[in-house]
Amino acid sequence: MRMTPSEPLLASATAPPIGPLADVENAINAVFDPISNALSSFVFAEITVLGVTFPWIVAWLVIAATIFTVYFRFVQFRQFRLALKIVGGRFTRDDEPGEISHFQALSSAVSGTVGLGNIAGVGVAVTIGGPGATFWMIVAGLLGMCTKFVECTLGVKYREEHPDGTVSGGPMHYLRKGVAERLPGGTGRVVGRILAGGAAVMILFFGVAGGNMFQANQTFAQLRDVTGGDGGPLGGAGAALIFGLVVAALVGAVIIGGITAIGRVTSRLVPSMAVVYVAACLIVIGVNLPQVPAAIGAIFAGAFTGAGVAGGAIGALIVGFQRAAFSNEAGLGSAPIAHSAVRTRHPVTEGYVALLEPFIDTVIVCTMTALTIVIAGTPFWNEARASAAAGGETPDGVLVTSNAFETVLPWFPYVLTVAIVLFALSTMLTWGYYGQKAWTYLFGRSRASERTYQVLYCLFIVVGSVLTLGSVLSFADAVLFLLALFNIVGLYLLAPVVKREVAAYRDKLRSGEVSDLRASDPR
């Protein structure tokens, strides 16, 4: 979903501001530059394994996903069918506590992870890591399913239910309550509050910057580019401002309604954008059907024999894992905020639903993008790979992806624009909710507090449309991944709690206390 400092994703950016706006942007960037550089140098600090260099945070996320997969006995595979039944509403009644259905919770969370990185970031991955990066991207996505299972079960387990029927959940709550339970005496309370407060600050900052400003900025950039650049209808000085005001009005109208309204919108928006994008992928793959076996062979060969550019087989593995970790956010603690609002009395049911999220984001959407690029095999991609292998600049990921589609669909830039707009809008809606929950945790839950946040959030949409603020966005990216450091420590401590929830729910399934509503319906 995001753009990290080392991953150029988009082909164009909003035209640099001039006059007073340029002075404002330069002043803000000057303040954030040293802070951003210092934090990014820590969070994205690189380690070297077998001659391949990669950020340590990727290893932190992937190792956790592997440990949880083993600890929970590959739950993402054993309970995949049950997860599909639960997301279809077959095990949950409408009178259970919560605000939204399992399907709406899943679509809200997916809308926060499926985004520009799925389109552009994958283009970078298969250029640097070769076709083999696709295989390891799938592996990392499958492992990440278990991390999502753990953190979203905890999100529901420790959520707070308010008198008006709304709920608040996420790492702010399960770190504070859960860690206090697991660690003895006052130590647990102090550590839990520190971790929870830090998590809230990180989520709030990224929600306003990366989940909001970046999305608005790059959506306008794509619209401006596809309509003729500087000479087109969106090339004027005021076009970005008007665009920002329109998007702010649309987003504000939805987020004021809370997660119920967001769930209604994303439950329609997410399937629509997925169908549009996956259909385009399938068209390219279908036209190039004779090349499919060779492409699949290249993916497997590159995964194990070193066809990738970045250090052979190990390089393909690292690049694939990095793309998956940066895309599906498993372990970052963001998704449990949306999943916590689900209607259920059994926390583990939403854990099962949440494990579908990395499957959709990484195993399906990212893999479809990668397959399309590999199968199309454009001259541009081959030239970009040769340049990367020779130590040249990393290509703009969106150009790699767009060129692959244009081999079959010359008008694809317009489809890409529609996809980017839908992805960005859904991301802004979901991160608006995430940020609001962090805001109310820090500043109190009242109507005035919520309205203040919502107004500020919408104002930053306008700011993001007009200003690039690269240092602010780099800082926000580092802040979100710093959250994973604290969140996963909490997940390790609370994994036994999740295991007890699994056992309790399985006992209820066996005893018939919880049953398939469709199977037991006398009609």
Query: SSE string, helix = H, strand = E?
Result: HEEHHHHHHEEHHHHHHHHHHHHHHH
Quaternary state of the chains: single chain
What would you report as the Rg, rounded to the nearest angstrom?
A: 22 Å
- Biggest sheet descriptor: 2 strands, antiparallel
Give average pLDDT, whole number: 82
The CATH homologous superfamily is named Amino acid/polyamine transporter I
Per CATH, which architecture? Up-down Bundle
- Strand fraction band? under 5%
CATH classification, class level:
Mainly Alpha
Unreliable spans: 2-13
Strand order of the largest sheet: 1-2
Number of domains: 1
Alpha-beta classification: mainly alpha
Q: What is the CATH fold-level name? A: Amino acid/polyamine transporter I
Can you offer a commentary on this structure?
The chain has 523 residues and is mainly α. The protein has one domain (20-512): Amino acid/polyamine transporter I. The chain is 74% helix and 2% strand. It has 22 helices and four strands. It has a two-stranded antiparallel sheet. Strands 3-4 form a two-stranded antiparallel ribbon. The longest helix is centred in the middle third of the chain and has 42 residues, at 185-226. The two termini are 44 Å apart. This is Alanine:cation symporter family protein. InterPro entries: Na/Ala_symport. It is a multi-pass membrane protein. Its main location: membrane.
Short synopsis of the structure:
This protein has 523 residues and is mainly alpha-helical. It has helices at 20-43, 56-71, 75-78, 80-87, 102-113, 116-128, 132-157, 171-182, 185-226, 239-255, 258-287, 292-305, 312-328, 335-339, 347-354, 356-376, 379-389, 397-406, 412-443, 447-466, 470-511, 517-520; strands at 46-49, 52-55, 160-161, 167-168.
